[in-house]
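Researcher: Quick test of sequence recovery. Tokens follow.
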């Protein structure tokens, strides 16, 4: 597939890339009707790019069957209203099977989670992503990069072999490193998505990002859209006003090594009566005294 054919996918990445939560029922299973309702709320709120099986969706706590279910629910609910970027990962055969399943259902892209392996060589990183990208040449492929050691030259090497590698979710918390990495890989060659969401979006946009991921968007789609509109127009003062509005919420998510990253989002949704607060180990629900603060923040956003 030519690069021209990936224009729709590239445009979808240069946006608010929503990472939906995976709500659970009282018995601990995926709450399918609630999941659909939360997805519809995102779509009705103006979100047009969805990533099922992302980290905010508790990817690593889901079974293979649940990951397939989440993919199916998201693609079915999105229909023609959104581009779907399905999270895949684990060992290569599992990631390839997930990517092919996504393709069969009509997804347009896959996001490849950072390899959860204690020993990642740079050449091996290329091999891992190449195996997945080559298995689904029709799909856009977006590596999720959290490895500060990886060089931009390695990404360029991957894309030389796999032209369907069209974008990058860059999640190393270092704006200067991101700026250098993007230029070493090819600033115009890829769509650069700020993978650390709204708190890092202004600094990463100033260095060349054109999209950002969001978990907060589950709670307040309008807030995330306000930020990207400001960034697109180059109005960093307005973007930082949004940043100030969401600062405490994101600080709570980032505390203690992001221990409560998903928990805070689900707590906010629970305070609004939209889903249960339960998360799966190794995450944990908030203590009672923290719940009120999260509820107050969510109530303060005009949703």
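Model:
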């Amino acid at each position: 597939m030519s690069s021209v054919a990936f224009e729709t996918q590239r445009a979808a990445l240069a946006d608010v890339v929503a990472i939906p939560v995976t709500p659970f029922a009282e018995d601990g299973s995926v709450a399918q009707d609630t999941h659909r309702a939360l997805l519809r709320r995102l779509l009705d709120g103006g979100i047009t790019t969805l990533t099922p099986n992302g980290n905010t969706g508790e990817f690593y706590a889901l079974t293979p069957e649940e990951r397939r279910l989440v993919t199916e629910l998201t693609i079915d609910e999105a229909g023609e209203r959104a581009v779907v970027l399905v999270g895949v990962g684990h060992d290569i055969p599992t990631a390839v099977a997930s990517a092919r399943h996504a393709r069969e259902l009509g997804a347009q892209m896959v996001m490849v989670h950072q390899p959860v392996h204690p020993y990642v060589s740079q050449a091996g990183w290329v091999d891992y992503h190449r195996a997945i990208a080559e298995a689904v040449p029709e799909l856009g492929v977006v590596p999720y990069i959290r490895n500060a050691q990886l060089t931009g030259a390695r990404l360029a090497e991957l894309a030389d072999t796999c032209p369907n590698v069209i974008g990058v979710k860059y999640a190393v918390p270092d704006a200067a490193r991101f700026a250098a990495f993007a230029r070493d890989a090819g600033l115009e060659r890829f769509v650069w998505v700020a993978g650390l969401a709204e708190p890092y979006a202004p600094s990463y946009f100033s260095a060349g990002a054109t999209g950002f991921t969001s978990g907060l968007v589950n709670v307040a789609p309008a807030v995330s859209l306000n930020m990207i509109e400001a960034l697109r127009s180059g109005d960093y003062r307005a973007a930082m006003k949004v940043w100030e509005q969401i600062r405490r919420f994101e600080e709570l998510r980032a505390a203690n090594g992001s221990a409560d990253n998903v928990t805070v989002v689900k707590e906010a949704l629970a305070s609004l009566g939209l889903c249960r607060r339960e998360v799966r180990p190794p995450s944990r629900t908030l203590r009672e005294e923290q719940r009120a603060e999260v509820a107050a923040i969510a109530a303060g956003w005009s949703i």
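The mean pLDDT is 96.
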